[in-house]
Amino acid sequence: MSKTLSQKTKDFTKRFCIQSRVWILILILASFCYLETSQIVLAESSIGQKDRPSVKVIDAVRQDLSNRTNLEPNRFKLIETRQETWSDGCLGLPRSDEMCTQALVEGWQIVLENGDRTWIYRTDTQGRAIRLESEK
User: Fold this and answer.
1) Across residues 103-115, what is the average pLDDT?
2) DSSP for residue 68
3) Would you state the torsion angle of the CA atoms of residues 81, 86, 88, 94, taken in this order, to the nearest 10 degrees?
4) Measured between alpha carbons, how far is 81 from 88 in angstroms, rounded to an integer?
């Protein structure tokens, strides 16, 4: 009762098709799980971005101010943060002879204080672009 080559080929093809369908189904389900998780993480991170700057952004501003004043970063008290849309890649504060991207940049205005001195900073949302707006 040996199977012919044709019958063996048909059996193999049938098993292969069933196994392929199972793997495709597993991949589709895994993709949905991944997308669901990604959307949850994205939603959670965007919630924090709308309310206030991340700790990373505030720490970057404190570090910049520390470098300017030679004071420790933890010496600066956070007074105020406000979400802003800046007019360009220089956050509306171009330096002389500096070319700025001409696109709106979402970001923050951050006010820090130490004693009777106050500094106002501008940043992008991630804290990669930081500019000192004024010191009082």
Assistant:
1) 94
2) H
3) -60
4) 20
Q: pTM higher than 0.70 for the full model?
A: no
* Residue 75 and residue 114 in contact, taking contact as beta carbons nearer than 8 Å: yes
Q: Using one digit for the tens of pLDDT, what is the confidence trace for 51-61?
A: 889 999 999 99
- Segment holding 66, helix H or strand E: helix 55-69
Indicate the pLDDT class of residue 133, thresholds 50, 70 and 90: very high
List C-alpha distances in Å: 126 to 34, 46, 84, 109.
25, 12, 13, 12
Q: Tell me if residue 46 falls in helix, strand or coil.
A: helix
- 23 vs 136, residue with greater confidence: 136
Residue among 64, 62, 96 nearest 76 (CA): 62
